[in-house]
Give the backbone structure.
Amino acid sequence: MTKDTSDDVIKIDKAEDSASVTEAGKLSSKLIYEVIRRNGEEELSRPTRSLVWSGTAAGIMISFSVLGEAILRTYLPDTPGRFLIENLGYSLGFLIVILGRMQLFTENTITTVVPLLVRPTMAMLMRVGRLWAIVLTANVVGAFLIATLYAYTSVISDDLRPALIALSEHATGMPPAQSFFRGIPAGILVAAIVWTMPQAKEANFFVILTFTWLIAAGDFTHVVAGSVEMAYLMVQGMLGFEQAAFGFFLPVLAGNIVGGTVVFTLMVWGQVKDEIRSDASE
């Protein structure tokens, strides 16, 4: 490991990068951390316009999680195991967004925080805050765009609307404290996807499928997918601003941040911080 004296960031030399990061069968925690740090640095350096377009696209595409679940609920027979099967539909939007490398806010609660932990400066904190604000806003805008399309056009069949409304009312109807606490496991699971993918390689599809299915099956709350459900009700006058903002959006947002950043990222940082600091002192 060598130290970049220009910006005080720990880097892996080219030989080690080639042998360990791209070709190794099993990556150490330190190397996975470095992969995520580099991805985070790349995201933090992207132009605002790119972040806006990518974040809006993610907000639109994540709607297929809600739509996929509604389709399976509508057409599957009403059996005791239907709940577990219909939640596979929830994974659809996440597969599109994550494999398509679109900007999803809850991914950024770990990816962009890793560079901040390595280099905890005010400038880096401002860069992370900028990206979070842009991506979250774009995600919500995308959610409202697609929800309006679903609500006021014939793009989806009338058969799906009862299930879509029922799912949306359930997601946004929890008490604020419950919304917050159920947002914590969702934040942890999305962060776990980010942490696992460098090692999973060809199995990324199944990692995303499994972890996001668990979010739905566990009845946990996700701020971006849930924003589609929130928006679907709001644009039809079925959900007021106060309940939407203070009963759902802000508590879930806080829970996802606590789960993805405070809990998961700091646990991961605890695994590697001594090694990174040791390398920095060499």
